[in-house]
Design goal:
The protein is of the alpha/beta class and 336 residues long. The protein is 37% helix and 23% strand. The radius of gyration is 20 Å and the shape is globular. It binds nicotinamide-adenine-dinucleotide and 1,2,3,4,5,6-hexahydroxy-cyclohexane.
């Protein structure tokens, strides 16, 4: 079965995902596209040589009879509306992070999905599909490190645009770690604190950069994450899990090592597209296969909600400078 997909939001990642569905993955076809910037939608269809229909708006695309599943890759604040509309139309939906920009928005999606009676939503937390993180998860689950005690991590981007402001270090960037650590540790968060070290001269006036986020989990694991989005030198994701009997480090992405002019060196990647290219492939193929089989898996609305709750508390902690507690509601059996 070919899954007929409609794409809402044809910017950077919308085009990346559409390209991989069209050129790399199997059993999916982009049949419909839309963007608030109509020219942008047409441009993407032309770039990729798609014969997709260009819709005026996301709501009409979702309702189209020939759309089996929806990809939401528009700006974060628009996600909730489109995910709710897809659930209402009975269409499976892949939604890029964040599922919604507030925990309340995620809760609305959860209520709608439970009402629908089956899982309809996969959230774009692609790190769960990254081979390095998967190896770490296997080692932790097999108890090879003993009980995990601490995580040291860093999330570095070379630079961010002017519209990137201080809370986005949480909602836009740290949100990946907030999901990844819950999944790696099979745990939830209990508290958060955010510390601002000396500010880099490369950050513009509306963003505090770098930031250090300190998390504590229910099982007592302590986590420190450096978020540094103007680090200049590259796109660099680091993670080290310290257990009672060993340590697991996230592998560096494969890169040619070369000897030249008296130096031994290798290149550092510059963006998320290349760093998580393979993970995006696996993630979206899983979505397409899930739709074809009538049973989707991967990061759920509950995972999107859990990350949003922790994210909201981290933003509060940015403002208060205090250790703030994180209260997770009980997980409904539906998401067990
Ligand atoms: N998983 C990842 O690593 C990753 C990487 C990049 C972006 N993202 C997420 O993907 C989303 C898009 O990011 P991007 O970098 O592609 O941004 P972008 O600005 O390049 O593209 C977003 C597109 O959405 C369109 N849009 C905005 N509002 C719309 C609406 N109401 N209806 C239809 N289209 C609308 C914009 O015109 C734009 O073309 C964000 O939520 C972002 O957090 C995730
Ligand atoms: O939207 C992007 C994307 O999610 C990247 O994976 C992350 O590293 C960036 O900080 C964020 O701005």
């Amino acid at each position: 079965m070919t899954v007929r997909i409609g794409v809402i939001g044809t910017g950077m990642i919308g085009e990346e995902h559409s390209r991989r569905i069209t050129q790399t993955l199997t059993d999916g076809e982009i049949v419909a596209v839309t963007d608030v910037n109509a020219e942008q939608a047409q441009r993407m269809a032309d770039n990729l040589g798609l014969s997709a229909k260009v819709y005026d708006n996301g709501q009409d695309l979702i309702k189209a009879d020939d759309v089996d599943a929806v990809l939401v890759t528009s700006w974060g604040p628009t996600h909730e509306e489109y995910v709710l509309a897809a659930i209402e139309a009975g269409k499976y939906v892949f939604c890029e992070k964040p599922l919604a920009t507030t925990a309340e928005g995620c809760r609305n999606i959860i209520d709608a999905e439970i009402q629908a009676g089956k899982r309809m939503v996969q959230v774009g937390f692609m790190r769960r599909y990254d081979s390095g993180y998967k190896m770490m998860k296997d080692v932790i689950d097999a108890n090879k490190l003993g009980e995990p005690l601490m995580i040291h991590a860093a999330h570095r981007n070379p630079e961010v645009p002017e519209r990137y402001v201080t809370p986005m270090a949480i909602h836009d960037t740290l949100i990946h770690e907030l999901d990844t650590f819950r999944w790696l540790l099979d745990d939830d968060y209990k508290s958060a604190q955010v510390i601002f070290p000396r500010k880099t001269r490369h950050a513009h006036s509306k963003v505090e950069d770098p930031q250090m986020v300190l998390l504590e989990t229910v099982k007592g694991v302590r986590i420190d994450v450096e978020v540094f989005v103007n680090c200049q030198y590259g796109y660099d994701i680091q993670c080290s899990v310290v257990g009672e009997e060993g340590i697991a480090n996230l592998p560096e992405p494969q890169s040619l090592q070369y000897r030249q002019a008296g130096k031994l060196s290798s290149d550092i990647l510059q963006d998320w597209k290349k760093r998580f290219n393979d993970a995006f492939d696996v993630e979206l193929q899983a979505f397409i296969d899930g739709v074809a089989n009538g049973e989707i898996g991967g990061p759920s609305s509950w995972d999107g909600y859990a990350a949003a709750i922790a994210g909201d508390v981290c933003v509060k902690a940015q403002e208060s400078g205090q250790i703030e507690s994180i209260e997770m509601p009980e997980r409904p059996g539906f998401y067990a």
